[in-house]
Amino acid sequence: MSNAFTRTLGVDLPLIAAPMAGGAGTPALVTEAARAGGLGFLAAGYKTPQALADEIATVAAANVPFGVNLFAPNPLPIDPAAYRRYADLLASDAERHGVTLPGTPVEDDDHWHDKLDVLRAAPVPLISFTFGIPGRDDLAALRATGAMLVQTVTGVDEAKAAAAAGVDALAVQASAAGGHSGTLTPTRPVADTALTDLVAAIRYAVDLPTIAAGGLATAADVAAALRAGADAVAVGTVLLRCDEAGTSAVHRAALADPDRPGTVVTHAFTGRPARALRNEFTERYGELAPYGYPAVHHLTAGLRRAAAAAGDAERVHLWAGTGFRHATAEPAAVILTRLSSLL
Fold first, then answer.
1. How far apart, in whole angstroms, are the C-alpha atoms of residue 14 and residue 316?
2. pLDDT at 1
3. Sheet of 263-266: strands edge to edge?
């Protein structure tokens, strides 16, 4: 099932492997998504500029269509006193894993300008943005590389703002999505709107191609999103256990655990809202954590890495969308083919 948008992307299927920052998304997964007839995204978030450049080179050598997702600067400053209180709350967990927490907030922009330089030096077909809408000069510089520019939005007002900024397409993310919400206003609750309704509302308000994302775990889900007006769909959680994903062992095991309770939207791990499997960390700190990104991310990062290495699923960010029980341990191409079976 092709359409004008997928033909522009040079793919046969309107099916995208979503960017998954933090290690789950790999060049192998991006390449396999393309070989299955769709398209995959490298996640630039949290990587060094050199690591991003290396991954772009790896996928480009496979001669397949792909995209790169960037965390656009949209800082959420943290109150120093709130930071200190949260660090004190985390101290016992950190001590248990032999981790020293940062004494003061770490604020950065995820090497934004250096990553723009990487993309100017090594152009890619598709670039998407999450967390914020880049400034016009940055958008113009990236468009000059020949890339199509895609903005993640979570509501009609954000879609209108993105269109006004001049992007080429929208990634419409529903609250059911796993991992970070792309909301531009992270301290406000994201509306719990069904993805099909959100796509229809945004298509009515803004005349741009749309990629639907959030909670898509079955072939029926994919077909419904396309019927609602999406030009393509992006799936992430359903690929977390696939052979090509870089998902940690502790995360894979939690996704497969039949006794694991459902998901929750929490800002306890990073200071921005993100959907994860419930665990002791989300239950203990969900109501106590301050907002503040990237300071909270940096505060908890060492603890989360140490917990993952120790197999402690109760102190790890187990990002997952509402359809996590459909994640299976098999090749990505098999999963993507199954998801496209009703198209």
1. 33
2. 65
3. 179-180, 274-277, 263-266
Bridge partners (DSSP) listed for residue 264 = 276
How large is the average pLDDT for residues 310-330? 98
311 CB burial (10 A radius; 0-12, 13-18, 19+)? exposed
Q: What is the DSSP letter of 315?
A: G
Q: Considering the domain delimited by 4-339, tell me its CATH architecture.
A: Alpha-Beta Barrel (3.20)
Please state, rounded to an integer, the average pLDDT across all residues of the chain.
97
**What residue ranges in 88-165 does DSSP mark as E strands?**
126-130, 148-153
Respond yes or no on whether the N-terminal peptide bond of residue 123 is cis (omega within 30° of 0): no
pLDDT in tens, 200-240: 999 999 999 999 999 999 999 999 999 999 999 999 999 99
Q: What's the pLDDT at 41?
A: 98
Structure tokens given for 27: 């060049």
Q: How far is CA 85 from the centre of its chain?
A: 29
The answer to whether 332 and 36 are in contact (CB under 8 A) is: yes
3-state SS assignment for residue 269? coil
pTM greater than 0.90: yes
pLDDT interval class at 132 (50, 70, 90): very high
- Can you give the residue ranges of every domain in the chain? 4-339
Tokens of 57: 């080179």
Q: Would you call 262 exposed, middle or buried from its count of C-beta atoms within 10 A (0-12, 13-18, 19+)?
A: exposed
Q: Strand, coil or helix: what is 29?
A: helix
Which candidate, 31, 20, 2, places its Cα nearest to that of 331? 31
pLDDT at position 177, please? 98
Return the closest-CA partner of residue 243 out of 317, 337, 334: 334
CB 265 within 8 Å of CB 181: yes
Strands (E), 209-287: 210-213, 232-235, 263-266, 274-277
In degrees rounded to 5, what are phi and psi of residue 212?
-90, 140
